[in-house]
Amino acid sequence: MKEFIENMPKVELHMHVEGSMEAENLWKLAHKNHYEIEYNSIDELKAAYQFNNLTEFIDMYMLGTRVIKSEQDLYDVCMTYFEKCVEQNIRHTEVHCDIRTYVDYGFPADFVINALHAAFIDAEKRYGITGGFMPCFIRHLGNEIAQKDLDLLLPFKDKILAIGLSAVEVGFPPSLFKDTFKKVHDAGIKVIAHAGEEAPADYIWSAIKDINVARIDHGIRCLEDEKLVNYLVETQIPLTVCPYSNVALKIFDNMSQHVLPIMLEKGLNVSIHSDDPAHFNGYLTENMISIAENTSIDKAGIIKMAHNAINGSFASQKRKKELSKELVNYIKK
Ligand code: ADE
Ligand code: ZN
């Protein structure tokens, strides 16, 4: 099973670029840019990759953003992740990277756009990896800032796959951003949102009813509301589940308690992703292996979720067909 998963062609739909910065790389970049970090060694920094909840994690995640000082730095962080994709047979990846953080540091809005756009062009040329990026509004900064972010993003709408909603969830339901996401839809941009990660099922309803999402990041707490589960099964809205993230952020005590087998069994459109792989101890392959080894999900379940990831992506129909064909051929072999 381990080997089957390692070699399987994969699609990733939920990964935050700065969350792929291993402690060693973060440390090196801090030193290159003469940024003084509050840790005395790489080991100390590594040891700080420990969290009790999402808010604690977001604090650490921000350190990664603070050591990035140029478009080239951000491009390099992306490229390091794409090299990991090659190792893990990830063929298509849709990644998160917020513009607000860098705008607040004094960089122009196109800082993130240019870096990620260039990285994706080179990833396709060099490695055949397709995909794109999806900036998120930082929900705990509120709707006014989200509106400002949208104004900054609109001139670049052809360079982004979707706009999402991320960061501290509890206290910041999607409904707060209803008018801004209406403008996102009016501009013809797809909408996604983190929902039901730490906050209850109501936040998932809000993502559906108030901002009309095409896809939900996490969504694991949908199981608390039977009506919602039925709705999600009926509509097949994709849920991008991140098992290691959920364990690292203490949603579950360990992987064997993860609810993914129940979600799959109920017919929800679930797939596996890594979220912030450097912080949560595993990239896409490790997430899949851990689920296969610690829960009742078997090979058929892993294959079903690999298909769900392809179908739930924002790739063109042509690219989806290619990805499906490669997966089917791999399984036959
Ligand atoms: N930003 C980076 N990782 C995140 C997560 N798991 N939830 C919300 N926002 C995030
Ligand atoms: Zn996330």
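^ adenine complex. Strands lie at 10-12, 90-96, 130-134, 136-138, 162-166, 190-195, 215-218, 239-241, 270-272. The chain is about 50% helix and 10% strand.
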